[in-house]
C-alpha cells in the first residue's frame, strides 16, 4: 500500500469554523478521532479516522528559530613584509552540485613596521567589504568585534533570498582558506584561527511551512493547480513571516475487512505559535482518552490571549482630544513557560500597568491580566503604538491603534 502524508495549516483556534486556516475541533469516533480544520479559503477539512490502537507515534515539536553561521577569526601578531590573505570557497554555488564553486578573497594586506594584529583586522574588514561590494549584503558581512586587547574579525552569513516555489533560501556552504606566511624560513598557516558557530535552518519557520504548503497544494487537484493555462488565484494559509509549532502523528490503516498489509500514514499540523494552537489540539486529543494515560505529553511553550487578538491588532474606540485614558484588559495565559514574560510598549500615548510576569503566574490556571492604556493627547488624528510580549524564544508583536476625534 502507498504511504500517505497530509499537512494542515492552523493559524488560530476557531470552534465556529468561520475563520480560514484554523483548527476547529475534534470528532469523537469512540475508538479514535478525526481533526477538523478550515483551509485557506475557509472550506472545511477533516483528517482521516485515526484509531487510538493504530497510532505509532504522536509528538508535539516546538518552533526552533533559525541561526546564521558566524566565524570569529583571531589573528596573531603580524610579521613585517608578509601578506595576510584569507579566501572564501563557496560550494554548491547556484545549484545543488558540489562541482559549482565560487572563490573570492576577503582581502590581502602586506604588514608594515608598527602594525599590530588590530591593524590587520581593520584592513581585512575594510577590504572584505570592498571586495564583496557587488555582493553587498548578499552573502557575508565583515566586522571587527571584541574589546580592547581581544579584537577579532567576525564573518557572518547573510540569510539568502526566499521566494515561494522558486527560492528556498537555503544556507550557504563555504570554507575559509588561509594563505601561509613565511617566518624564519618556515610556512605558518595558523596566523589565523577560527571559531565557528554553525548555522541552523530552524524548525517551523513561516517560510518552511509556506514551502511545504506549496508542495502539498500541488497534489490537491485542479482547484489549487499552479500550472493551468488559466491564471488561478491560489490562496495559501501559511504566513511566511510567522513561526509554527508542529504536531506529528504517525498511524496506519490495515483495512481489517480485507486483511491486507498496513498502509502507513502521517499527518503534520503546523500551528501558529502565537495562539496556543498545538496545545489546544493536544488537549482535545488527550480529553478523548479520559481516564487513561495522555497520548501527548510534550508541552509546547506558548501564550494564549483572551479576548483573542485579531490580526495581531488591538484597536481602541475613537475618543476626544485630552479626554480620560481608555484601557484594554488582556489576559495572558502561558503554557509550559520556563522564563518570565517580558512586556515592552512603544508609542508615547500607550502604556501597560505591568511590564513583567513571572512564568509561574502566567502558567497558572487563570493566567495574568495586563491593562494596556491609551491616554488621548491634545492633537487629533490616528495614533499608533506597539506592544511586544516576549516569552522565552517566542515573540508576539501586537499593533496598538487609536484615533482622536476632530
Short description:
The protein is mostly beta strands and 406 residues long. The chain contains four helices and 28 strands. The protein folds into three domains: 4-63 and 206-300, no CATH class; 70-197; 305-404, Immunoglobulin-like (Sandwich).
Which labels suit this protein?
single chain, 406 residues, mainly beta, Immunoglobulin-like, 3 domains, four-stranded mixed beta sheet, 4 helices, 41% strand
Could you explain how this protein is built, in words?
- This protein is mainly β and 406 residues long.
- It has three domains: 155 residues, no CATH class; 128 residues; 100 residues, Immunoglobulin-like (Sandwich), CATH 2.60.40.
- The chain is built from four helices and 28 strands.
- The strands form eight sheets. A five-stranded mixed β-sheet has the order 21-28-27-23-25. A four-stranded mixed β-sheet has the order 1-19-18-6. Strands 2, 3, 4 and 5 form a four-stranded antiparallel β-sheet that branches.
Secondary-structure-based class equals mainly beta
Tell me the total number of β-strands: 28
The span between the termini is 69 Å
Supply the number of helical segments: 4
Strand content: 35-45%
Task: Please list the strands of the largest sheet in the order they lie side by side.
Answer: 21-28-27-23-25
Largest beta-sheet characterization: 5 strands, mixed
Average pLDDT number:
87
Helix content bin: 10-25%
Shape: globular
| Number of domain modules | 3
Radius of gyration: 28 Å
Low-confidence stretches: none
